[in-house]
Design goal:
This protein has eight helices and ten strands. By secondary structure, the protein is of the alpha/beta class. The N and C termini lie far apart (52 Å).
Length: 255
């Protein structure tokens, strides 16, 4: 009798080579005996430790994107299920970043994408009857106790960045108000990670206020717990808060 434990199927909807997507891939690929990982995004990711990653091209702006993604997921599970010891259904969808190919770094466009992608992921999790794990930043407040007037008076989010801030909160509220049975909202700060080097450095140049830092290992542990969690959870992954001066002193010998 074969008593081998079936691998949990995890679909990671990410930006292809984004820092958070890389971090999650590294963790789950190192535990390939526990997880069957499918990455859905704009660009394929490079192999991890010479192991290829099952990839599905995915863009929420394409016609029938949801239906096509589900069909491709089921095809992969059906093709590799028996040989790889895979469960016959998806355990969790992880939304690690706003996913869309026809987008620039214009904050207004990204603002629109924030809300649309979460709405899409909620419907995807319902269709696959699986848990949804969504990550969002700590930078714009918490939707469950948010006062809209705060955003208007907060200097850091005036002007072009305001649509982005509003959309992050609207997306989180959409998730919290959904009827998903199994859902985890993971709130993180800037990542203390080599994957996040370019983004991290750029943000610290333009922001002159204390920033919440999340360590890579803490995010990895939280993600893995959320994949298996039942029920609805809001988790804040905070490690420490530091100023620009503290940041540059700490990083001066690292990069």
């Amino acid at each position: 009798m074969n008593n081998r434990k079936e691998k949990a199927v995890v679909v990671l909807c990410g930006g292809g080579s984004g820092c958070v997507t890389n971090i999650i891939c590294d963790r789950l690929m190192r535990k390939s005996e526990e997880y069957f990982l499918i990455v859905a995004g704009r660009t394929p990711m490079p192999p991890r430790d010479e192991k290829s990653i099952d990839f599905i091209h995915f863009d929420i702006f394409e016609q029938n994107a949801g239906e096509n993604l589900i069909n491709e997921i089921n095809k992969l599970i059906g093709t590799k299920g028996i040989a790889c010891g895979v469960q016959n259904k998806v355990s969790a969808v992880i939304n690690s970043i706003s996913t869309g190919g026809k987008i620039s770094y214009d904050t207004t466009k990204i603002a629109y994408l924030n809300y649309v992608s979460v709405n899409f992921m909620v419907n995807l999790a319902k269709s696959l009857n699986c848990a949804l794990v969504h990550m969002s930043s700590l930078k714009v407040g918490q939707p469950e106790n948010f006062d809209p007037t705060q955003l208007e008076s907060e200097p850091a989010w005036r002007g072009a960045r305001s649509p982005y801030a509003w959309s992050k909160l609207a997306a989180e509220l959409k998730l919290l108000n959904s009827d998903l049975q199994d859902m985890s909202l993971i709130r993180i700060g800037l990542l203390d990670s080599l994957h996040a080097k370019k983004f991290y450095t750029r943000v610290r140049v333009v922001c002159d206020f204390p920033v919440t830092i999340t360590e890579e290992k803490d995010l990895q542990n939280t993600i893995e717990k959320a994949i298996h969690a039942k029920g609805r959870h809001i988790v804040t992954v905070e490690h420490h808060v530091e100023s620009n001066l503290q940041f540059y002193r700490r990083m001066s010998n690292r990069w």
